[in-house]
């Protein structure tokens, strides 16, 4: 796009050759009249991730791997006032960026948000109820329980962003100092980041962090 991007989509990767193409195609095919850019922050993959990603996005090779470091490293190289962080196995629908941008334009007090998550790669499970046969995935209850978890976190005024999709205003991201560098393999980057945002909003006496139940993304259930 010729005009300066208003949205920067940032995807950290490390050996994601089996997932990255689908995710980037989903971002590339957005029906969005807002200028946006696609940035891949690669942590020195040893597979074909970078080769694939360069067909769809601007790729930066970071000096070391680690999701927090990779994301923080590329943010200064982006232009958008709205930062969209996606995992390499997360899929968005074709109107995702348009809808997200409108939400932030309408709600000036919104600091950051995540869309609801649905896990897409579970195995089908069939069961019979009376004469009817029903089929669900083995992630059905995981999807439901995760939805309840984030709903009640928000209800109790301790909202938690979802790591596979975090959308935040650039200025707010910079105010909290980006993602905290946690020890390797320690789960909880998104919770620590959410807590930093909650602290900032209370200190500033303004700002909201939300999970959007009316917008969803698909992501892998791998852990």
Automatic annotation (TrEMBL):
InterPro entries: Glyco_trans_2-like (IPR001173), Nucleotide-diphossugar_trans (IPR029044)
A Pfam cross-reference name: Glycos_transf_2
Parts of the chain that traverse the membrane: none
Domain Glycosyltransferase 2-like stretches: 8-174
Annotated PANTHER family: GLYCOSYLTRANSFERASE, POLY-BETA-1,6-N-ACETYL-D-GLUCOSAMINE SYNTHASE
Name of this chain's protein: Glycosyltransferase 2-like domain-containing protein
Annotated source species: marine sediment metagenome
């Amino acid at each position: 796009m010729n005009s300066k991007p208003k949205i920067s989509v940032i995807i950290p990767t490390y050996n994601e050759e089996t997932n990255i193409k689908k995710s980037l195609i989903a971002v590339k095919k957005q029906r969005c009249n807002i200028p946006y850019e696609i940035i891949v922050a690669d942590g020195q993959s040893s597979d074909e991730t970078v080769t694939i990603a360069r067909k769809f996005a601007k790729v930066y090779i970071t000096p070391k791997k680690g999701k927090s470091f990779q994301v923080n490293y590329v943010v200064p190289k982006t232009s958008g006032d709205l930062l969209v962080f996606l995992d390499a196995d997360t899929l968005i629908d074709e109107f995702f960026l348009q809808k997200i941008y409108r939400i932030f334009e309408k709600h000036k007090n919104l600091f950051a948000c995540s869309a609801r998550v649905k896990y897409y790669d579970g195995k089908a499970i069939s069961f019979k109820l009376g004469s009817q046969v029903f089929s669900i995935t083995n992630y059905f209850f995981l999807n439901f329980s995760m939805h309840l978890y984030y709903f009640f976190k928000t209800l109790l005024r301790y909202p938690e962003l979802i790591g596979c999709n975090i959308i935040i205003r650039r200025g707010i991201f910079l105010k909290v100092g980006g993602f905290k560098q946690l020890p390797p393999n320690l789960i909880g980057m998104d919770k620590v980041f959410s807590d930093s945002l909650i602290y900032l909003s209370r200190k500033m006496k303004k700002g909201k962090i939300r999970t959007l139940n009316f917008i969803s993304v698909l992501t892998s259930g791998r852990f």
